[in-house]
Amino acid sequence: IPVEVGELSWRTTQPLSQEANDEALREELDLVDELRTAASLREASLKQNVAARHDVKVIKREFDVGSLVLRRNAKDSNHGKLATNWEGPYRVRGKTGNGAYHLETLTGQELPRT
């Protein structure tokens, strides 16, 4: 016989009165805002720590206009794991900010969405 069946639970041996239950609910409602605030502070702190760890490992690379670069190849599922990882070389045509660049082929044809 499982213990749950043979022994009475705390809930059944110590029933709460309606007044005590209402008071406990009011106290919990008063604490909800504090708990949410504390949780959002912990979340913000965790996000900052994760971002700081990530930023330490990232090596920022900037290219000048006219530099030759390779572009990561968008893998097609039909080509399998032996498909090329990089395509190019391409020439940097211009900077757009935040590490994004406009690229062109070596013949001068601009690549869309780069």
Give me a quick take on this structure.
This is Gag-pol polyprotein. This protein has 114 residues and is α+β, with helices and mostly antiparallel strands.
Structure commentary:
- This is Gag-pol polyprotein.
- It is a single chain.
- The protein has 114 residues and is α+β, with helices and mostly antiparallel strands.
- It folds into two domains: 6-57; 62-114.
- Helices cover 42% and strands 19% of the residues.
- It has helices spanning 3-6, 10-13, 18-57; strands at residues 68-72, 86-97, 100-104.
- The longest helix is centred in the first third of the chain and has 40 residues, at 18-57.
- Count helical runs: 3
What is the total number of structural domains?
Answer: 2
Beta-strand segment tally: 3
Gross morphology: elongated
Protein name: Gag-pol polyprotein
Organism: Trifolium medium
Q: What features would you highlight for this structure?
A:
114 residues, alpha+beta, 2 domains, three-stranded antiparallel sheet, 3 helices, 3 strands, 42% helix, 19% strand
Topology of this structure?
Blueprint: H1 3-6, H2 10-13, H3 18-57, E1 68-72, E2 86-97, E3 100-104
Antiparallel strand pairs: 1-2, 2-3
